[in-house]
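tool_call: predict_structure(chain=1)
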Amino acid sequence: MNRLPLVMLLWIIGLLVACAGSPPPPPAIMEPTPILDQTEAIGESPELGVELLMELESTTIGSVGEELRVRLEARNVSDVPVTLHLNNGQTFDLIVSNARGEEVTRWSNGRIFTMALQALPLRPGESIVQNLLLPVPEQPGIYRVVGTLMTAPMVRTEPLAFEYRPEAD
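tool_result:
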């Protein structure tokens, strides 16, 4: 007598019993509504001894073609000199995502950077600053922006929200 069909049937029953006892997958977590009056966010890397500060000039953009002005500052918060190692000529980046958390754009999109390793020394309390202009997304809405220091490992800020609300002509 061939036992293969019986073994297969028992295996399928065992699989069904195991799956029936599993809880359903958790519902998709919706991010909370962003707060539009926050203009500063911080990220830090104790490993590197660096703090990354991102400041938005405004949280509302109302004109087509207007750019979001963002200031990024990487500061040595340790008591000893540190060296930031970068893989190319890019020091910072900005990553913009929509309300669903999908990446919409990056400041670095379409830009070319030198292909030379960088070593940026920072004494205790010293910082490097860069002011970036970020083109607004094409569609009106509320977006999140995250600042990134392009070291290894990367240092990222908490997200800040901004709204693109074109003024009526």
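agent: The radius of gyration is 24 Å. Proceeding to next step.
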